[in-house]
Amino acid sequence: MESIDVKSLPSGGLFVTGTDTEIGKTHSTAALLRALRAVGRRVQGMKPVASGCELVDGAWCNEDALALMTAAGSTAAYADVNPYALPTPTAPQLAAAETGAEITLPAITAAYRRLSADADTVLVEGVGGWLAPLSDTLDQADLVRALDVPVVLVVGLRLGCINHARLTERAVLADGCRLIGWLGNAVAPGFDTDGRYFEALRRSLRTPCLGRLPHAPA
């Protein structure tokens, strides 16, 4: 991991969103969890809604949620870390419809409170990009407001990332949410080896930079 300023992150909850899907939100959230543990914080990871799950001992489990539990050293109940485990690997609103599940805020906020009882900081990973809905009637901004937590943005470093990062920053702020920092994640091998895009992002975004993660093929 390259330098990440986790000491500046507030205690309590943090919501991790991204500029798109497949830009390393789980990888970045896990890195933040490990870094926070390294400076003495008690942490929990949470993936409230996850699509693309597998049956494990008769229960649906998601590999991203399990990765967050490992990074946090968590012994919490899986159902609290991932209240909505949806089998089909597609948009949550579609995956939930297939199973007849109704994604609601009370179920998520109750699980969040249980996780918070044993942690200094809970990192809550969202789905896809900021405007990817959780259901036909529920946006991720609704969840952030219900939890009353600030937002960290993961920027996937690849062609188009400046546009996507600026659009996401504007959307988060326009929704009245607190965006406290962004983290660059090198998702494309060989991209921006001279750091020009990363520095351009620093100049283009109003939000402080928390650091940068190198490319991790796995």
From TrEMBL:
Names of required cofactors: Mg(2+)
Annotated signal sequence range: none
Compartments (UniProt record): Cytoplasm
Residues the entry annotates as binding ATP: 22-27, 64, 125-128
Database matches in Gene3D superfamilies: P-loop containing nucleotide triphosphate hydrolases
Positions annotated as active site in the UniProt record: 47
EC code(s) of this entry: 6.3.3.3
First-tier enzyme category under EC: ligase
Binding site for substrate: 51
Keywords: ATP-binding, Biotin biosynthesis, Cytoplasm, Ligase, Magnesium, Metal-binding, Nucleotide-binding
Pathway: Cofactor biosynthesis; biotin biosynthesis; biotin from 7,8-diaminononanoate: step 1/2
GO terms classed as biological process: biotin biosynthetic process
Binding site for Mg(2+): 26, 64, 125
Record carries keyword Nucleotide-binding: yes
Lineage top rank: taxon: Bacteria
A single GO molecular function term of this UniProt record: magnesium ion binding
Major subcellular location class: cytoplasm
A GO cellular component entry from the record: cytosol
Family per record: Belongs to the dethiobiotin synthetase family.
Task of the protein: Catalyzes a mechanistically unusual reaction, the ATP-dependent insertion of CO2 between the N7 and N8 nitrogen atoms of 7,8-diaminopelargonic acid (DAPA, also called 7,8-diammoniononanoate) to form a ureido ring.
Subunit and partners: Homodimer.
Name recorded for this polypeptide: ATP-dependent dethiobiotin synthetase BioD
